[in-house]
Amino acid sequence: MNNGSPSVVLENAADGVVVVGAGLAGLFTALKLSPLKVTVISPAPIGEGASSVWAQAGIAAALSEGDTPEDHAADTVRAGAGLVDEAVALLMAREARARIEDLLRYGVPFDKDLEGKLTFGHEAAHRTSRILHVKGDTAGRSIMNAIIAAVRQTPSISVLEGVVARDLVLRKGRVQGVILAPTTESSHTDSFVLPTRAVVLATGGAGHLYSVTTNPVEARGEGVAIAARAGAVIADAEFVQFHPTAIDVGRDPAPLATEALRGAGALLINRKGERFMRAIHEDAELGPRDVVARAVHREVINGRGAFLDCRPLGPGIAEKFPTVVSTCHSAGIDPAQEPIPVAPAAHYHMGGVLVDVQGRSTVDGLWACGEVTSTGAHGANRLASNSLLEAVVFGARVAEDISAALPPLPTLNLHVATRGGTPSSGSAAAEQTLRETMSANVGVVRDAEGLSETLGTIIALERESDGDTELANMLLTAKLIAAAAYERTESRGANFRSDYPRTDASQARRSMTSLKRADAIAREAAGVASPPRLRIVSQS
Ligand code: SIN
Question: Over 80: is that where the pLDDT of 417 sits?
């Protein structure tokens, strides 16, 4: 791996592929593209700032005795509340075996029994135990450590750290470069253009658009905004999954208490000690994630409080869930002795850049994989532990597709004018306003009034954000989410509308939107006549 020398990076990028994002999807794609030259763009040092590292539970794969990819796909479809693309769910479940074998080859130490056979944990809405873990709750970090080690040994991969993508350069309708900007912590000073033969967006999620989230600060929805501005179709944007059990100790981001705890017997109770989930779903604590998140939300807003009682797990909890236990200890909570206060937090964006089964977006030259995409695998409600699986399955597919037909070299002038102002203190205030309005109005429970108010706030903030592309990108993705939620006048999966509490069979279809459409909906909903001032960056 080459690290950060601008001349090496520029040469590599122009001659190869740029992967934007250094979580599991991006790095796995880069490895699979080898020996093609790849430049990976990472806002933070690799291994930091990616949600994949924080994944506690694991990776779902139908490899245990008696389990089948067909059953895994059927559970995925059932969890997705009518919007999962069944062919995609099936291909993902079928390719799990090959991708787990890849991860084992890269050295991922999945948990095994004394005979050396893989062991499988249980999680909500899976009919059987099929989650591969590493040392209890450290799967994300362990998988990423192995992948990063493999990346470091791969000479075809260069990593450019401390930069973020701000925009794509389009020529004759095709992506030919990426505009990059330094992060505020970076030693690079100017924005610059990286010409490239193909771009893979793997920028992760959008949890940081909300004031309560389990995602790292880098998960700002940038990739969705960049793709939408380039003309890409965005699918299922309204479906943001809220994790029911973020540990509620006032931290931003909120630490996670993994769903695997409930799989192992932890119970949800309120301040009176009542197990409120029993009255709500036949599977109680192991009901679908959106149902559990809404129940927890209701206990919290009604003042009864919500707590995860891990005492049934006994003292073994420290060994099985070291991350959760150490987080609790640092907040003065002993989960072996007392219930953990919990609240729902924005956790995973099911929607994103529409891609086909090879990871191609609707824009020529632009591929995408991981959380930034909408492949159709998750529908309205993602099945637990399917996200790392989707990242590796589609990472491999993207790499195969690009390797089969790498586009010709672009002839871009490297000194294309760039832009992208430095975030100001006004931007920080605007970002806080955005995050609070998203949590209040585009969260676990939504209605037309709150969504209209949010769209109005976003339009107002857009007018003030001139020059700050980072904020503009956050606002754009937030607008796509809120506009899609406004348009879906029913409750389905993660989009619960208190003004339309029923599921409407006539709306059982994925949503497809664009920047233009989201703008029009936002203006109509907010009662604003003139379009917001958004600067489009593309070259012709
Ligand atoms: C968790 O550990 O509960 C998160 C798993 C997931 O989001 O898939």
Answer: no
What CA–CA distance (Å, rounded) separates 212 from 253?
7
Residues within a 6 A CB radius of ligand 1: 56-57, 256, 258-260, 348, 384-385, 387
Read off the pLDDT band of 136 (50, 70, 90).
confident
Contact indicator for 368, 355 with CB cutoff of 8 Å: yes
- Chain segment 419-447, per-residue pLDDT in tens: 445 556 678 999 999 999 999 999 999 99
pLDDT per residue as tens digits for the range 16-65: 899 999 999 999 999 999 999 999 999 999 988 899 999 888 999 999 99
CB atoms closer than 10 angstroms to residue 336: 15
Q: Percent of the chain, pLDDT > 70?
A: 91
Ligand 1 centroid, distance to 140 Cα (angstroms): 10
Give which of 197, 193, 209, 201 is closest to 228, Cα–Cα.
201
Rg from Cα positions in the chain: 22
Residue to probe by mutation, ligand 1, list 131, 141, 215, 258, most atoms within 8 Å of CB: 258
Q: 185: buried, middle or exposed (CB in 10 Å: 19+, 13-18, 0-12)? A: exposed
Distance (Å, whole) CA 180 – CA 191: 5
Measured distance CA(456)–CA(458) in Å, rounded: 5
One of 3.40.640.10, 1.20.1290.10, 3.40.50.1400, 3.50.50.60 is the CATH number of 6-54+143-238+348-404, namely 3.50.50.60
d(CA 118, CA 108): 12
